[in-house]
Each structure stands twice: as C-alpha cells, then as structure tokens.
Amino acid sequence: MTTYSTIGMAERSDANWRWGGYCGLGNVGPLIGALRTKTAIICGNAKGVFEELQALRDIYDYGDISVFAVNDVGMYLPRVDHWVSLHWANIYAWREVRWLLNRGVEDIRYHSVKQDDEKIIDYLWEELTPVFALSGYFAMQIAYIMGADKIILCGCPGEPAPRFFEAQPRSDFGYGMGLGSADTGIFSQLVGEMTRVPDFKSKVRSMSGWTKSYFGGGLD
Length: 220
Prior knowledge:
The protein is of the alpha/beta class. It contains 6 helices and 9 strands. Strand 5, helix 2 (91-100) and strand 6 form a beta-alpha-beta unit.
C-alpha cells in the first residue's frame, strides 16, 4: 500500500534503503545517490514544458543532465532518461506511443510504486515513506533520492494551468493551488516536506508558475 502523507513519517524498521530523510522498500538500492554531479530536469505535462526544456538545453550539456518524463509528456520529449508515474497502469501504452513515433533505440528507465501488468517498470519505489501525491513531485523526489545536485521543474507550475494538449486549465483541480480539498492536501504535503527536509528544497528550482516563486527560477 502506498503511503501518502502530509508530513514525513517515522523511520520504517523494515526499510532496505535510506537517503536524506526518506526510506522505503523495493529494488531501488542501486539508484540511491547515483545522480551526484548531475542536474535532473523534471518534465511535467503543463503547457510550456517543451519551451522550458529547450531553454535549459540551450545552456546545459546533455552529459550533465538527466531528463525525467512525468506521465504522458514522455511520449513526445526529444530525450527521456527516466520515465516516472504514479499511474503505473498507463505506462505501457505511453511507451508504445513513443515507440510508434520512431524514437529509435533508447535506454529509458521506468519508475512507479507498483508493477504494471506488462511488467515493464524497472524500479519499484515500494513503501516510499512518504510519497508525494502528484507524479511530478514524485519524480522530483526520486531525483533528490538519486542524489542530483540540482533539480529543475519544467511544466510543473504547481497551479491551475492547461496541460500541453489543452487550451484551458482543468476547472476541478489546481495542482496544489486550487480550492478543492485535494489541492489543500497537496499544498500542505509539499510545504511540509520542504520544511522537514530543507536540503531537498535547496536543490529544487522551477521554470514557471507558483513553484518558480517558491523554489526559485531554473535559469537563476
């Protein structure tokens, strides 16, 4: 069972890995701290993600970054190193669309909290304590646990915004800055975790939206 918490929970006695205020189970041990010296770019699915990624590609050498795709945007990104989603049942279909777009041979690692029916997920973040409630923040969390020196959010404004395939934002959900109870919980969890683990917050930047004002700009 995945643990969604507003603030970090007590250490698990049965954890098989620990890093920077987090712990859990699963086969992710070899990943812990593996991105030291790297910048992780987290690509969510808000409108503007492709332009924001391009702005970073103009200043970063590809050898110095690791690109994390979040959910469906991974079908269309020019490069993906890690593909992350809490919606494990959808990952196979998204991967097939990317393959149909003739991306060629790629070395992509797939991450979730559960295995999908096709068993394509490489790394299972089982019982990550706690796990963020949004896939974009979950990807950010994985990048932190993997030891990235800097984590830059693209297409993750943390506020109501159209997705890359929409003209208007959703009316029922604001990614933490809306008026619903889910938004309140997401906002409280994020701010609570950044307060609890200040080293995590110090590594994060964002290219747009409320997260840019909260974490600082990705080009700063």
